[in-house]
Design a protein that fits this description.
The structure is a homodimer. Chain A is α/β, with parallel strands linked by helices. Chain A is 41% helix and 15% strand. Chain A folds into three domains: 4-59, 434 Repressor (Amino-terminal Domain), CATH 1.10.260; 71-169 and 314-340, Response regulator (Rossmann fold); 171-311 and 343-357, Rossmann fold (3-Layer(aba) Sandwich), CATH 3.40.50.2300. Chain B binds a DNA duplex through helix 3 and helix 5.
DNA sequence: CTGTTAGCGCGTTCAC
DNA sequence: GTGAACGCGCTAACAG
């Protein structure tokens, strides 16, 4: 058997070995591979031939990244489990935009989840920059560690953090606009279905406590927006952005006595679920119940209605994050970005059947 | 301003600086951080204090991975664009299982796409091991490079590759079983809706040519399985595993003269799309058209029917891949795994209205 | 328990 | 255009 011991040379050849065989110095061989310097065609050819003979696959990425101080890897910090995060089509769209933009500069996206690897591990990742997605206060430790390392950070829809480039969405204003639209139609009893408020994705009635202790930035912002129009609006906290969760929420909200005449869901999938719940309860949409979603997901065929919703530029958010990273890595100081959602009226809202009662309820 | 130039010490402190300040040797400081060796409590405390004073965030991941020869990163090679790959819930389930199992050993999953980064880049990633997903022959270059580097490889549902641990699904047999089920009911005119056959996701009639030149391993296997029962079955190649694609396929297949009495879709989402197409054409399922899917996705609410399908253990596939990687990294030689799908009869198949005509058609 | 030494594999000076 | 030398930051051996 031909192996390390019998041949006397290392099993995995290194650049030095290739250089030796090619009869050039290591630095010349290095230049031949990286192409970032003047090498004679002859020398390059000899190096490449030697590499082939030794079955050398090119410079070791680890050594190269140590020497260069860059790994080419962009970290994506996700708080949820992958399964949960990827179930939301908006996250996927964002990742796609991000990959699009960062693909040019590096190797790939490194998925970092808080639960999988502890904050220790997450901050010990060999990334050149990191994007924080759907983050809450729990990420503080990781953020601090990244900062100490001097790793540029971009946060998408997160509370403002010093030194972290913010890519935001007008969640509050968009939600206020939705609420205003419903108020304009005459609705007074309006309820919300929110995205998860805590890291455990506890679902249930939206209480003062759950709202106060919320770590879900986007969800909280959207609640606040609605509250600007309906200060006392109640709601249901869903365990995730899924149709079934919306149905559960809908059943809970619509089964009570003084049921709402309109429901504002924080995602389109939740809204579809609410529509299902309404149908199951024999309520017509929008005659008996107005429903508005959020996201602007293409729902053709999934829901029979043309859902009223706030269309958000998810892919663009990812792209902006990617561009931000590139800028930061280039030593620039990119401006924060706030994206604007646009209202799609659809056909799932209408004047309430019994308009203008007094106040809102939960 | 206090900076590098004025203080004379590097802006980012390194382990040596910390050790110096703590009055211990670098190796002692290293042990204090990694915890993998005997260090006196006093020494550790001094090191930690020094680290805090210097705002040192711990050992540099790049240097550490060079020295240790391991980065703690597992690569996931995806052929598609992220958007396409993640649109298929099976892929997400797999990734989840993979992350679950590999979370223990490392930092995270590095998403590598062929289109984003070239084969050069992809093989230059500092990964300890890699999982190939939905790969075709186009990945050969990357595979070769990984092999040269001695990086353990696991392939999920891929053609057999020497030295690559295979995690497989009984696609062929499962598809044969579906076909046999339909044959048993009396169906003779059966058509397929397949997953993409080429990297560009070209959709259209399934032709001898597209079939022959297919790079979609899973799709081809499933076609072969069906062909064991219906050798002449025709079909439609979808551009992806999405409901709308299924609808398009259904419309194409069902609009012709001698329309099939049963359609075998290669995913549940496609099957749902076909159901929609059937409904749009006024065909009843299963009375006028039997439909079978694949995957065993939970479709509650998305489709009114209880879809007949082959339930595949997607999360388990990911888990098995993860365990395989762990084994390979430990120097073991894990056995390949072949998972078995189980048939869920549902209520979307029935005897054909006009049974037992002669042969199949396209 | 701690310190010393010696690289990991490469890229980058700076001379020639 | 090329080679020699050095150091990136850390950790595995050993020696004390």
């Amino acid at each position: 058997m031909i192996d390390e011991a019998s041949t006397g040379r290392p099993l995995r050849p290194n650049l030095a070995a290739v250089a030796a065989l090619a009869g050039v110095s290591p630095s010349t061989a290095s230049l031949a591979f990286s192409g970032s310097g003047p090498v004679s065609a002859a020398a390059r050819a000899r190096v490449l031939a030697a590499a082939e003979r030794l079955d050398y696959a090119g410079p070791d990425p680890r050594a190269r990244s140590l020497r260069r101080g860059r790994s080419g890897i962009v970290g994506v910090v996700i708080e949820d489990r992958l399964r949960d995060a990827f179930r939301d089509p908006m996250n996927i769209a964002m990742l796609d935009g991000l990959a699009d933009e960062t693909g040019s500069l590096g190797t790939g996206l490194l998925l970092l989840t808080e639960n999988g690897s502890g904050a220790e591990n997450i901050a010990g990742a060999p990334v050149d920059a990191a994007v924080l997605i759907g983050c809450s206060t729990r990420l503080d430790a990781s953020v601090a560690a990244f900062r100490q390392r001097g790793i540029p950070l971009v946060a998408i829809e997160a509370p403002h953090l010093e030194g972290v480039l913010a890519i935001d969405l007008d969640n509050r204003e968009a939600s206020r606009a939705i609420a205003a639209h419903l108020a304009g139609l005459g609705h007074r009893r309006v309820a919300m279905v929110t995205l998860p408020l805590d890291p455990d994705h506890t679902s249930g009635v939206l209480t003062e406590k759950s709202e106060r202790e919320s770590t879900g930035f986007t969800a909280s912002e959207r609640i606040r927006g609605v509250r600007e129009v309906f200060p006392a609006a109640g709601g249901w906290v869903a365990a995730g952005s899924q149709i079934e969760e919306g149905t559960a929420a809908g059943l809970a909200l619509l089964s009570g006595e003084r049921r709402p005449t309109a429901i504002i869901a924080q995602s389109d999938l939740l809204a579809v679920g609410v529509i299902r719940a309404a149908e199951r309860l024999g309520l017509r949409v929008p005659e008996d119940l107005s429903i508005v979603g959020f996201d602007g997901l293409r729902l053709d065929g999934i829901a029979p209605h043309d859902l009223a919703t706030m269309v958000q530029p998810a892919v663009e958010k990812g792209r902006a994050a990617g561009r931000g990273i590139i800028g930061l890595l280039a030593g620039e100081t990119p401006e924060p970005v706030i994206f604007t959602s646009t209202f799609h009226p659809g056909n799932t809202t209408a004047r309430p059947a019994t308009p203008a009662e007094e106040t809102t309820e939960g």
